Structure formats: C-alpha cells, structure tokens
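Dear support,

Our group has been running a series of protein-ligand predictions, and this particular one with adenosine-5'-triphosphate is the one our PI (initials K.S.) wants archived with full inputs and outputs. We had some confusion internally about which version of the output was final, so please treat the block below as the authoritative record. The input we submitted was:
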Amino acid sequence: MLEVKNAKMMYGDLVAVDHLSFIIKPGEIFGLLGTNGAGKTTTFRMIMGLLEPTEGEVIYNGGKVGYHNVNEIGYMIEERSLLTKITVKELMLYFGQLKDMDPKLILERLDYWLERFSIVDYKNKKIKELSKGNQQKIQFISAIINNPKLLVLDEPFSGLDPINTELFVEVIRDFQKKGSMVVFSSHQLDHVESFCEEIIVLEKGKAIISGPIDQVKKDFKKQNIHIVGEVDVEILRGIKGVFKVVENSNGIIVKIENEDVSKDVFDYVKTCDHITKYDVEQASLSEIFIAKVGQIHEEV
Ligand code: ATP
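Confirmed final output from the archive:
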C-alpha cells in the first residue's frame, strides 16, 4: 500500500504541492490529474522517494519510501528521454541492471514484451531509428521490465494512436490483476474515466477533486439530457434550472443544474412530437474537470 500523508513540496517560495493525502492499494489504478504545472510530476517524484517532501511523508508498504524501494518501482517519465545512440537491447540491459536484474532475465522479458508490442524486429536497432510511438513503447517496457509493484506513469498515452493506447491499457490492466499499484497522469480524461477507480485532481498543488470516479460524478449535481426529436430550443432554455442547451448533429443536449430539473424538462418534452431519444446522463469527467478548475480560477 502507498500512503501519501499531508505531503507538501516547496521549490523556494513556490508551493508546488500543498498538503496532499491519498492512499493507493494493491490492484488499484489511480489517476492523478490536473492542468499544466498543477504538481503531478512533483507528486510522482515524492511517491518514488526522488524528492523529500518539505512537510508530510510518503509511506510505501509500512516504511518511508526511499532508494531502497527502487527495485520494486517502475517509472515512465513524461519527457521521452531515452539514450538514443544505443540499441533497444543495450538500453534495456542498462535499465534492468540499474534495478539489480540478472541480464538473462532482462533479455527473456524483453523478448516477451517486444513480441507483445509487435516490435520484435527493433531489438538490435538504435533508439533514434525508431518512430516516436515505438520509442514510447520502449520507454514503457523499460518501466515494466522489473515487474514493478508500484508503476508510475506520467502521461503514458500522449501521442499514441488508439490501437497502441488500447495495447498499453491492456498491459496496465494485467499489472493491476497481478496486484500492482498503478498511478498515472493523463490529460485524456476519457481514458481516465474508462479505466481507473480513483482520482485526484490537482490545481496549484491542492486537491480540488478526490475520490472514486462514481462518487465524484454523483457529487457533481449537474447532468445532461440528450434529446432527439422536434423540440423548441427556446422553451427548453426558459425552463428554470436549465443552464445551457447545445444543438449538434446527434440531437440536443440540455444541461441541467440537478436531477430535479429533469422532471420539468420531461414534462415539456412529453408534449412534443417525434421524440426518439430522451436520456438523462451524468456529466463526463471532462465537464467536471473544466467546471471545478474554472471555479477555482474565478475564486482567485
Ligand atoms: P505538467 O502537466 O505541465 O507536466 P505538472 O502538473 O507535472 O505539470 P510540476 O512539474 O509538478 O507540474 O510543477 C508544479 C510547479 O512546480 C510548477 O509551477 C513548476 O513550474 C514548479 N516546478 C517544478 N519543478 C521545479 C523545480 N525543479 N524547481 C522550481 N520549480 C519547479
């Protein structure tokens, strides 16, 4: 288990992370979200013991996290900074041995992952000869070569096509099934929504949203009603509690303040003709993110 307890990190006068607390249990995928500069990378560095919090602490399996845990951790950094003049095989031997792995085991696992990521032919190629996406696969493999118990992924999906994104997701899920703890950051909130249980959204180092995704959505009262049919948009806009009506090629989205408003919208829609769809949907994580971060900026 990983426990971040009231962690604060200052760079000079700047508070990069402000009294942050959360827990990740074995087999859990945890999403750390936030706008640029919100404090995600700083949090990752504290989690892995690379940065000592100015206040608070990070506890990994009962003890203070530190260099002694390095062999159990896998880290994919946001900057895609691989050593480009050496081959994939040389690079993996280097990273694996930094984690005290036996070279034979490194090469066995490398063959497995190259096969799984369909890049077997690149084993003896120099990193610089690989495409950006394939370099990203190598960076990912370097983070998982030691079968980490704690996998830390800073923006693992950025720049990946949908097929490779799915491949990464499958591998991350396999680590989850084996009981690893996974913590990752992403600006692609649809991924976050589809595959992690728990999130924290940081803004200026503070947690502004935290908890299980289902709960976060439930707590966010605003909802969307998706309507397809002949309705008068102006009448919908006039209903109390409707704060926005958006027309698009898939129909009409009526944004409401809370679920009570849906009754009034429904009472009106019942009087309309040719209604083929009426769905009340929870707000997406992306909408919640924009609303909460926007609110913080308005308050400042
Ligand atoms: P991004 O999404 O852009 O990668 P982030 O959420 O990972 O951002 P951090 O890199 O943790 O954010 O940065 C948090 C804050 O701390 C920012 O204001 C950043 O400028 C500052 N910062 C980060 N590293 C340092 C450092 N080594 N020295 C001084 N300030 C730093």
